[in-house]
Predict the structure of Bifunctional hydroxyethylthiazole kinase/thiamine-phosphate diphosphorylase.
Amino acid sequence: MSLTIDKNTIDYSLYLVTNSEIVPESLDFYDQVEKALQNGVTIVQLREKNLDTDHFIDRARKLHQITKKYNVPLLINDRIDVALAIDAEGVHVGQDDMAAEEAREKIGQDKILGVTVNNERDAMAAIKSTARIDYLGIGSAYSTTTKEMTKPILGPGGIKKILEVLHDGKPEMKSVIIGGLNKYNITRTLNECRYKDFCTNGAAVVSCIMASHDASLATKETLRSINLAYDNEEALHPYKHPNIVQEKPLTHFITNAVAKYFSANVCIAIGGSPIMSELSEEFSFFAKISKGSLCMNTGTMSNASIHMYKKAISEYNAHMVPIIYDPVACGATQPRREIAKMMIEHGRYSVIKGNMAEICSLAGANGVTMRGVDSDLNLNDLEIVDILSKLAVKTQAVIVMTGKKDIIVDGIIPTKKPRVCFISGGHELMGKITASGCALGGVIASYLAVCSYFHTFEAAIDAVALYKEAGYLAGQQSKGPGTFLANFTDELYELSRKPYRLLSTNIIRE
Ligand SMILES: Nc1ncnc2c1ncn2[C@@H]1O[C@H](COP(=O)(O)OP(=O)(O)OP(=O)(O)O)[C@@H](O)[C@H]1O
Ligand SMILES: Cc1ncsc1CCO
Ligand SMILES: [Mg+2]
């Protein structure tokens, strides 16, 4: 028996499309969907491309037992025979599958009918169709690995055009966006994909839940991204200073030859667990470990590095594991600028960290040049915050710019004006040793590994403040850079084992 549904009140906000082939090996398909249902998925589509009819019906029947428990409608992709056999709540048909009219005729008037639209012409046809279509699946928003990419990528621009057609032609028709959506990009995408005040009714996701090792958390975080877009409300769990020593996160470093030894020591000092690896075959193993992160530093790249970098960022992005990107000396030469551009285009980062020249170069600020790894530009705070904010919004990342005063800008949680934080203190000897910025990247990475994605800004502030404080304390006891290195490691070690307290470091949040 199917659920009794009121078509006017169907909640499309978090629409899960299943894919049994990407569920992690150790996990069960039905459990994965059930966890999603327990944590806020509002509608489910069973999509199976490689099952014969008997198995498909069997799977649909089992899944229906589960979705009914949560009072959530189950739609079947493409196969009307399967939907009818198990009395599902509806079907979804793609452009290449079957005409909407035929589908409606076969399923009757009461079931939910959804169709995929890829362009304005499809949308117009759906509006004019004699079949009653309940909702449109608009996509692909972005590129995805779930479906073979034969369909055009619409991007927010293409989606807006379809919404305009819908707004002018049949505003009561419901819609969801699909294709490459995940907790990182949903908020911004839903916000951008509006025509006037008209927006879609939800976001459809596949791999960010189905492929997750923690489908409950993945669903909660995805739902939160959606709520942020629709309500713009901060439904945050309160942020707590993380305990790195207790949680012992694993940070995978792909870092420069100069920074390796120091970064590993600093990471251990604060209670983290570093692993230096450039063996791309093992990246997927690290990316699957819970409480992990990647510190991606391109300081001493070689001609052989690029492929390895790409492999790392795609693995970590696919598993939604935080990455901090440190574009060392990215503005120094044309080849470095090009590689930095590639890194930004290829990956999503929780944090991008660099000194002033690096960040300004990455942001494409005019007139920025660099000599080697050093930074010396003459910009005031207002100018800097403006440059950082643009980069933060563009990359949807938290930007950390280091120097005498560190400046952190949030591009993840969308607010009218990105949140900004200034941190001062530390000691000038911090700038007189090599790789202190690089090692800070590893500290931030350790914090990211144990914090929710939505607390990236707070986590970055905590990591930078700890670092500054240790720098100040070490500076008071040091004769020069040599003794500073040792004292600094000691202070990081001690501070990490004490209750959170800052004495000399000043945090100003705008
Ligand atoms: N003059 C200073 N006073 C206080 N803190 C400083 C000073 N210079 C650098 N720092 C601190 O040192 C750390 C590294 O910052 P810096 O800007 O030197 O990085 P970087 O140049 O990218 O480092 P790297 O040598 O790894 O390339 C940051 O925590 C920063 O706050
Ligand atoms: C000195 C140096 N050269 C490339 S990376 C690096 C470490 C500090 O950025
Ligand atoms: Mg420096």
